[in-house]
Design a protein that fits this description.
Layout (H helix, E strand, L loop, with lengths): L1 E10 L2 E11 L4 E5 L6 H8 L7 E6 L2 E2 L5 H8 L2 E4 L11 H12 L4 H14 L15 H13 L5 E5 L7 H18 L2 E5 L3 H7 L2 E6 L2 E6 L10 H20 L1
Parallel strand pairs: 3-8, 3-9, 6-7, 7-8
Antiparallel strand pairs: 1-2, 1-4, 4-5, 9-10
Helix pairs in contact: 3-4, 3-5, 4-5, 5-6, 6-7
């Protein structure tokens, strides 16, 4: 479980995050949703330590990582898996070396053990015979699955994904959604996912936090979201669903 309390962040004079309190639950798919510019990406980056909050606390299962707790942050990073938007694979490394990269950083495993774990992670994301290929030889969906394999190869306790369905066709997006949900529940991970994809919200969103103009506007689950009495949330859901329909009809 990850708990954040009174998180604020300013860039120059602009308040990007304002007094946010939220809990991301263990063993569940936790979604952060909101318009572009709402602050949700800044919130995700703050959670993983890429951005430092101005005020507030972030607590990982009883361990605080804010302020000057650099030792705690270093330890928690070893327990994180991160899927960046676009996959962020290293173009100069083949698939196998991309996946073993976190093991080289955070473990003392032998080369043979690292390769065994990498192949196991590839099998988990339903990819075979691609270990020696390079990112340029993969489709968009395959790149995302390799990125997920890299994120889970060291069996993290926390999994973070930034727009994992960005740029994917509906069928592949559903595959990625199902894969992330399965991995979360199989390993009892605390998964936190930024998304604009309304299908993700209604299919896998077990706990949803809606960010609006830098504030937490609403939270609940996918069963509750359509009954929420919140004009800003209603507008976001309608606009996002409409945009998705237009884009898919244009393909």
């Amino acid at each position: 479980m990850i708990q954040i309390s009174h998180i604020t962040k300013h860039f120059d004079a602009k308040a990007v995050l304002q007094d946010i309190n939220a809990t991301f639950q263990k063993g569940k798919v936790n979604l952060i949703i909101g318009k572009s510019g709402s602050g949700k990406t800044v919130l995700l980056k703050t959670l993983i330590g890429l951005i430092t909050a101005d005020t507030g606390t972030i607590n990982y299962d009883g361990t605080e990582i804010t302020g000057k707790n650099t030792k705690n942050m270093t330890q928690i990073r070893k327990e994180m898996g991160v899927v960046f938007q676009g996959g962020a694979l290293f173009d100069s490394l083949n698939v196998l070396d991309n996946i073993t990269f976190p093991l080289t950083l955070f473990s003392t495993a032998t080369e043979k053990e690292k390769q065994r774990k990498a192949h196991s992670a590839l099998q988990r994301v339903d990819l075979r015979d691609v270990a020696r290929l390079y990112p340029s030889e993969l489709s968009g969906g395959m790149k995302k699955r390799v990125a997920i394999a890299r994120a889970i190869v060291h069996q993290p306790k926390y999994l973070f994904c930034d727009e994992p369905n960005s740029g994917l066709d509906p069928l592949t997006a559903t595959l990625i959604d199902n894969l992330l949900s399965e991995i979360t529940h199989e390993n009892n991970i605390t998964a936190v996912i930024n998304t604009h994809d309304m299908n993700s919200v209604f299919e896998i969103g077990e706990h949803i936090t809606f960010i609006h103009q830098g504030r937490k506007q609403w939270e609940g689950n996918r069963q509750e979201i359509l009954q929420a009495d919140d004009p800003a949330l209603d507008e976001f859901l309608f606009t996002s669903k409409l945009n998705q329909t237009v884009k898919r009809n244009a393909k």
